Amino acid sequence: MMDRRDFVVGASCAALSAMAGGLPAIGREEGEAIAAWQKETDLVSAEKYEAYMQDGKTDGLVSLEKRERAFEKGFREVREVKVGEVPAVWSVYNMGYVVKTRESLFSIDLVHRRAAEFAPLLDFALITHNHDDHWRQGFYRAMNSSGKTVVSNFLDNYGAADWRKGGKSWFAAGGYTRAVKEFRIKDVEIRTSLVDHNNYLIDFTTAFEIRVGGWVLYHTGDCGSGSEGKLGTAWGRPDLWLFFPGCGISVAKAVGVVKPKRVVFGHLWELGHKTGRLNEPLIRAALPRARSQCGDVALAFWGDRVS
Questions:
Q1: Degrees, nearest 5: CA angle 27-32-36
Q2: Which of 34, 123, 193, 251 is most buried (most C-beta within 10 Å)?
Q3: For the chain, what are the domain ranges?
Q4: What is the pLDDT of residues 41-97, one digit of tens each?
Q5: What is the pTM of this model?
Q6: How far apart are the C-alpha atoms of 23 and 290, rounded to whole Å?
Q7: Rounded to an integer, what distance in angstroms lies between the CA atom of residue 62 and that of residue 75?
Q8: Per CATH, which fold does 4-299 belong to?
Q9: CB-side exposure of 279: number of CA atoms within 13 Å?
Q10: Which stretches within the chain are classed as H helix?
């Protein structure tokens, strides 16, 4: 098996080497990796995962050991890697990412039993919606109590140091926004909008369009059925879209609307879900559909650096 960094960069090219039913086929090495992760995650029940989140015991389960290694890798590399014009982006777990620019370090939907260890390093955190596979109290408290900015559509963030300076208020609403807003934190410009989680949680998820210089990142959290018409970026085609192809969304339609230069699937094999994990059959269905609209589509395995 190739190195994970090489895999995530090269997967889309390998997959485009064959066609099946008019759609790009999944390459052999990519397919083997998907199958291996499926077998490993099948061994972890939602109950075991929640116990691990409390006590840190992996009990020899490969998926939980990979999760620990992914955190160690990301935590080490964010301190070591030198960043140029293009920010560096690490997948920590599922839809949780850490982004490093020349001036800033921030997280999006960071969930890990050790996530609070990142708090002293981070300038701010973004949270897409109020589900516990996208945020946890321990990390939020660590950020908020130390005066770090937390942007969400449901949490107070009165301790946000960047916005209390000079008498400024964080949207004059205790730290949250449920509207289209544009603001800047250090060298990072952020635009928020709302998308549907599914066909009954309407405008439940905040989508973040993020611009650093001329580079644009799009993170849409859990955007599901009905969101296709709400997607889109104001600052041009995203250089990288961190996308969850679940919750009933039409993958080909969504990718065709956004027109990203690169797509990376996240939220793979969410261990906290008893049902509805984005697992092997769904991934194998979604990848070709995304690749029919974008020539660079890959998976974010935990610990991968995707930019």
A1: 150
A2: 251
A3: 4-299
A4: 999 999 999 999 999 999 999 999 999 999 999 999 999 999 999 999 999 998 899
A5: 0.89
A6: 9
A7: 20
A8: Metallo-beta-lactamase; Chain A (3.60.15)
A9: 14
A10: 4-15, 28-42, 46-55, 62-80, 137-145, 161-164, 251-258, 280-291
